[in-house]
From TrEMBL:
<feature type="binding site">
    <location>
        <position position="241"/>
    </location>
    <ligand>
        <name>substrate</name>
    </ligand>
</feature>
<dbReference type="GO" id="GO:0004590">
    <property type="term" value="F:orotidine-5'-phosphate decarboxylase activity"/>
</dbReference>
<dbReference type="GO" id="GO:0004588">
    <property type="term" value="F:orotate phosphoribosyltransferase activity"/>
</dbReference>
<dbReference type="InterPro" id="IPR018089">
    <property type="entry name" value="OMPdecase_AS"/>
</dbReference>
<feature type="binding site">
    <location>
        <position position="221"/>
    </location>
    <ligand>
        <name>substrate</name>
    </ligand>
</feature>
<dbReference type="GO" id="GO:0006207">
    <property type="term" value="P:'de novo' pyrimidine nucleobase biosynthetic process"/>
</dbReference>
<feature type="binding site">
    <location>
        <position position="40"/>
    </location>
    <ligand>
        <name>substrate</name>
    </ligand>
</feature>
<protein>
    <recommendedName>
        <fullName>Orotidine 5'-phosphate decarboxylase</fullName>
        <ecNumber>4.1.1.23</ecNumber>
    </recommendedName>
</protein>
<dbReference type="GO" id="GO:0044205">
    <property type="term" value="P:'de novo' UMP biosynthetic process"/>
</dbReference>
<dbReference type="InterPro" id="IPR014732">
    <property type="entry name" value="OMPdecase"/>
</dbReference>
<keyword id="KW-0665">Pyrimidine biosynthesis</keyword>
<feature type="active site" description="For OMPdecase activity">
    <location>
        <position position="95"/>
    </location>
</feature>
<dbReference type="InterPro" id="IPR011060">
    <property type="entry name" value="RibuloseP-bd_barrel"/>
</dbReference>
<feature type="active site" description="For OMPdecase activity">
    <location>
        <position position="93"/>
    </location>
</feature>
<dbReference type="InterPro" id="IPR013785">
    <property type="entry name" value="Aldolase_TIM"/>
</dbReference>
<dbReference type="InterPro" id="IPR001754">
    <property type="entry name" value="OMPdeCOase_dom"/>
</dbReference>
<dbReference type="Pfam" id="PF00215">
    <property type="entry name" value="OMPdecase"/>
</dbReference>
Length: 276
């Protein structure tokens, strides 16, 4: 069996036991889209308008609900309606980073009640495996999936080397709930012990820091192209924020969403069926 990233999304969906990972892979295949749009705006109306525009082109919408100034629970109802209308999953980019007991409360409760609507969320591995146990206690019964931040896109970040390998080991110990990583390249076999059977593992790699027109911003963000990310680095989903929603008119936002969807998909096709 070829390594996971050389198989099609449909083949991988069949084998995935986690409901969120399976649904994401099926959605990617159905829509021919490995694009996740990150909608980092602060007003409810802008948030919903952008999602309605980009919805047809994405497999996943990534949110930071804590930046929305006029947040109320009706926003979540509208978001769920858009998710059904346009057939995409939801990923609240919460980057949990506390002890298990605290993250379980942050995930289930408070104003945002993230676990009740977000199919996928993410966490920093820095507190150790207790963070996964805490989040799993809430998310597993709901069929949710967790991504660990094994690497980051920013200049000078500390998620490298043994930290990254330890993140992968932590994921391997919780394969039913940890569905993959925020990372810049594939993690296959990283951190494996001698003799440990890891050939069949299929962690999804979701990758931010994607842009076609600029190389970075003034605060350390670094961009690569969909081709570099998907074809050369073997990642599964491209995460694009300002490259799409930051473009001004609704028509331009739609155009950019379609452009990134196409670029991401062509890169994937080149990966699974390379022309000789
Ligand atoms: O390492 C990371 C991890 C994440 S989740 N680097 C990132 O940029 N992100 C998120 O991806 C970040 O919080 C933001 O929501 C998005 C990138 O946005 P852009 O506007 O730079 O494309």
């Amino acid at each position: 069996m070829p390594s996971a990233h050389l198989q099609t999304y449909a083949q991988r969906a069949e084998k995935h036991a986690n409901p969120a990972a399976k649904a994401l892979l099926e959605t990617i295949e159905r829509k021919s889209s490995n694009l996740c749009v990150s909608v980092d705006v602060t007003k409810k109306a802008d948030f919903l308008r952008i999602i309605d525009i980009v919805g047809p082109y994405v497999c996943l919408v990534k949110t930071h609900v804590d930046i929305i100034e006029d947040f109320d629970s009706s926003l979540i109802d509208r978001l769920k309606e858009l998710s059904a209308k346009h057939d995409f999953l939801i990923f609240e980019d919460r980057k949990f980073a506390d002890i298990g007991n605290t993250v379980a409360l942050q995930y289930s409760s408070g104003v945002h009640k993230i676990a009740s609507w977000s199919h996928i969320t993410n966490a920093h591995p820095v507190p150790g495996p207790g963070i996964v146990t805490g989040l799993a206690s809430v998310g597993t019964p709901l069929g949710r999936g967790l991504l660990l931040l094994a690497e980051m896109s920013t200049k000078g970040n500390l998620a490298t080397g043994t930290y990254t390998a330890d993140a992968v080991r932590m994921a391997r110990a919780h394969r039913d709930f940890v569905i993959g990583f925020i990372a810049m390249h594939r993690m296959d076999g990283i951190g494996a012990q001698a003799g440990e059977a890891v050939e069949d593992e299929d962690f999804l790699i979701l990758t931010p820091g994607v842009g076609l027109d600029v190389k970075g911003d003034s605060m350390g963000q670094q961009y690569r192209t969909p081709r570099e990310v998907v074809l050369e680095s073997g990642c599964d989903v491209i995460i694009v924020g300002r490259g799409i929603y930051g473009k001004g008119s609704d028509a331009e936002v739609r155009e950019q969403a379609e452009r990134y969807r196409r670029e991401g998909w062509v890169a994937y096709e080149g990966r699974v069926s390379p022309r000789s």
